[in-house]
Specification:
Helix 1 packs parallel to helix 4 and helix 5 packs across helix 10. The chain has a seven-stranded mixed β-sheet. The protein has 340 residues and is of the alpha+beta class. The termini are far apart. The chain has two domains: 89 residues; 229 residues, BirA Bifunctional Protein, domain 2 (2-Layer Sandwich). 41% of the residues lie in helices and 19% in strands. The chain binds 3,4-dihydroxyphenylalanine. The site of 3,4-dihydroxyphenylalanine (DAH) has 11 residues, from strand 8 and strand 9.
């Protein structure tokens, strides 16, 4: 019987070394130590042994049993590690594989130019103001010295929603809104970028476009201040060698009014196709704020003077990037937009 016990035990130990999974381990345990296991069956036969033999056999069985149990424990720990290693190997992620690249967009050229203009004026101490795109007749025209029957309205008449409400035709109404808000504080020194709308559509006009308005008000502001600020702006925007000139013009909200030209950035002033041989390129409208407008804004025109200007962003973008048709800016063709 002793031999039988040892044989079963040794065989179980050998099988234990060879098996390769926790399931097989469990099966082997049932096969040897389970209710119907081979060692269990031997134990049942102990009753038939002679009384003096029983303790000896009991010891043999117990020793074998504890050897087996210890071996089991060790093997099961080994198998745990093995199965973990196996999982780590099969579930491994190769982090060296190239990922899915997210293509990066960039700002629309019009936005780029607005931001550049903002940066330049912020650098000169201006603040940024805003106004609504749906505007009243009062702010868009009336308060800017453009009464109902004024012929200059013709140049701008646009998209009306009602008799009194329209899509703003320029950013100039922000002048009035800002003065109303800040009065009596001085100085007023703002730019107002924004979208504007007009009933125009050709290679150099779009029904929706962008302007940047400027307004400076204080005691003792002069035309030379206007020229200095705009010269500085032009050089930062189009290069240090730019010159500007002021040409007399007319706007109802400024007196005197001036059209501002910049020396041509393509030929430097010699005359070329871009400047139509004149050496100058018109970029914006400006002037000394009309006393009536200052009054409409709440300030006293006998104490306060100021200048204002308004520029078209698309026009500046076209000059800067050499774009010949404004409509290209709004076609949303990526082949075009990706160039900027
Ligand atoms: N609002 C004018 C326009 O859209 C541009 C302009 C001209 C604005 C002179 C001004 C200015 O502030 O002083 O045509």
């Amino acid at each position: 019987m002793k031999n039988e016990i040892l044989r079963i035990g040794e065989e179980a130990l050998r099988e234990l070394k060879e098996l390769d999974g926790l399931e097989a381990l469990q099966e082997l345990k049932v096969k040897v130590l389970g209710k119907k296991g081979s060692l269990t069956a031997l134990l049942r036969q102990m009753g038939s042994l002679a009384p003096e033999e029983r303790p000896i056999m009991g010891q043999v069985v117990n020793e074998m049993r504890s050897r087996l149990e210890q071996a089991w424990e060790e093997r099961s720990a080994e198998l745990d590690v093995l199965s973990l290693q196996k999982r780590l190997a099969t579930e491994r992620i190769d982090i060296t594989l190239p990922g899915v690249r997210v293509t990066r967009g960039h700002h629309h050229p019009v936005t780029q130019v607005v931001e550049e203009i903002e940066d330049i004026f912020l650098g000169m101490g201006f603040q940024i103001a805003e106004g609504p795109e749906i505007e009243t007749d009062y702010y868009n025209f009336e308060a800017l010295n453009l009464p109902k029957e004024h012929p200059a309205r013709e140049m701008q008449d646009s998209f009306y929603i009602t008799e009194e409400i329209l899509l703003r035709t320029h950013t100039s109404p922000v002048q009035i809104r800002t003065m109303e808000k800040l009065c009596p504080a001085l100085p007023v020194k703002i730019i107002a970028p924004g979208t504007v709308y007009r009933n125009d559509d050709d290679a150099t006009h779009s029904p929706m476009f962008h302007q940047v308005e400027g307004l400076v008000l204080d005691r003792g502001i002069r035309l030379s201040d206007l020229k200095g600020i705009l010269l500085n702006f032009s050089r930062q925007m189009f290069g240090e060698s730019r010159e500007i000139r002021l040409r007399p013009s007319f706007f109802p909200f400024t007196e005197p009014s001036a059209e501002v030209d910049i020396s041509c950035m393509l030929c430097g002033g010699a005359g070329c196709r871009l400047c139509k041989g004149t050496g100058w390129i018109e970029v914006l409208g400006s002037g000394m704020v009309h006393p009536k407008v200052i009054k409409m804004g709440g300030y006293n025109p006998s104490e306060v003077t100021g200048f204002a200007f308004g520029m078209g962003v698309e026009r500046i973008a076209m000059l800067k990037f050499g774009i010949e048709d404004m409509r290209l800016l709004f076609d949303n063709d990526l082949r075009f937009l990706q160039q900027f």
